[in-house]
Amino acid sequence: MLDNIAFFEGKFIPFKDAKISIMTHAFLYGTSVFEGIRAYWNEKKKKFYLFRALEHFERFKNSTKILRMNLKYNTKELVDLSCELIKKNSYKEDIYIRPTAYKSSLKIGPSLINTEDDFCMFTMPMGDYIDTKKGIAVCTSSWQRVEDNSIPARAKISGSYINTALAKAEAQLNNFADCLMLDDRGHICEGSAMNFFMIKNNKLITSPIYSDLLEGVTRDSIIKIAKQELNLEVVEREIDRSEAFLADELFFCGTGAQVSPISSVDHYIVGNGAIGEITAKLQEIYFAIVKGENPKYSNWYIEI
Ligand code: PMP
User: Fold this and answer.
1) Helix, strand and coil in the chain, % to nearest 5
2) Which CATH number fits domain 136-290: 3.40.190.290, 3.20.20.140, 3.20.10.10, 3.30.1300.10?
3) pLDDT at 220
4) What is the pLDDT of residues 14-67, one digit of tens each?
5) Quick one: which atom of ligand 1 is closest to the CA of 219?
6) d(Cα 55, Cα 61) in Å, to the nearest integer?
7) Where are the domains of the chain?
8) What's the maximum distance between 2 C-alpha atoms anywhere in the chain?
9) Strand locations in 71-116 (E)
10) Using 50, 70 and 90 to split pLDDT, how confident is the model at 2?
11) Which residues make Cβ contacts (< 8 Å) with residue 48, sequence separation at least 6?
12) Positive or negative, the Cα torsion across 166, 168, 172, 174?
């Protein structure tokens, strides 16, 4: 990592020199927004496949708007910068790209007004964030998902990841891989840092975008793949906690999580406990697409 190149204060510089002050607004108040994007290394083609960077940077721009930031780069420029960053680093394995826009003023007081903004980005290797090969055991978090009128979950705001961090730590301390986060009425919003899908009677069901969740790029990809490749009916509706106990199949999805089957919730076994048939198919199609092996979806990746 230390020999890496990062983008910082408008320039590509050594990662080890990309440092901010301890008085930076974003460090003091969590006032930064970020994205997590994957580029998959295809060993046969000796190329990277950067997955849906445009959509990630569109969401990034929306997050900056919510934090009243003025980012000087447009979406296309951000995509180009991320491609350049990948080229400047010499990885030959799956990587993760982390752009951040942050309140850069050295200033006390959390207001978003009259503060400066800056942008930085780094990249690092990333394998599985969550096990994708066997189903994971999850619990229901005792922490409630931040709601839209508190910290909007549809913006990827660093400060709101305290909510994720508390929930993830609690789950891990109780020997679960992750958790389901509920809203104030007990409906399932999403996982700690991934979206949630349920399969019941051959229907693919997921929480709607007004359910205090991040509108995941992978969520959107899975919905499209399910409709186009498997001809599945997709329903976006609120999901009760106990519906998860009785589901045929469950899985998480996200840039980090990819497609992660869930084998139990609160110790209730999902289906027969093995990876479900539909989940397995979605997973197979998803992995082929992200590795650049399905030309039908070539508008979803940039070959580098
Ligand atoms: N929800 C949260 C809270 C997340 O942090 C993530 C990861 N970015 C997701 C969902 C999945 O979003 P995406 O598919 O765009 O990575």
Assistant:
1) 30, 30, 40
2) 3.20.10.10
3) 98
4) 999 999 999 999 999 999 999 999 999 999 999 999 999 999 999 999 999 999
5) 14
6) 10
7) 5-125, 136-290
8) 56
9) 95-103
10) low
11) 39, 40, 41, 42, 86, 95, 303, 304
12) positive
Q: Which residue owns the Cα nearest ligand 1 atom 5?
A: 193
Tell whether ligand 1 has an atom less than 6 A from the beta carbon of residue 218: yes
Q: Quote the CA–CA distance of 163 and 172 in Å, as a whole number.
A: 14
What secondary structure letter does DSSP report for 270?
Answer: P
| Interacting residues of 88 by C-beta distance below 8 A, sequence separation 6+ | 5, 12
Report the distance separating Cα 73 and Cα 267, nearest Å: 47
Assign domain 5-125 to a CATH class. alpha beta
pLDDT band for position 132 (cuts 50, 70, 90):
confident
| The model's pTM | 0.97
In this structure, what token pair is assigned to residue 155? 């913006």
Measured from the Cα of 36, ligand 1's closest atom is 8
Question: Ligand 1 centroid vs 194 CA: distance in angstroms?
Answer: 5
pLDDT digits (tens, 9 = 90+) for 163-219: 999 999 999 999 999 999 999 999 999 999 999 999 999 999 999 999 999 999 999
**For residue 289, what are the contacts with CB-CB under 8 A and spacing of at least 6?**
221, 225, 297, 300, 301
pLDDT for the residue 3? 84
Catalytic residue flag (residue 156)? yes
Cα–Cα distance, 171 to 166 (Å, whole number):
9
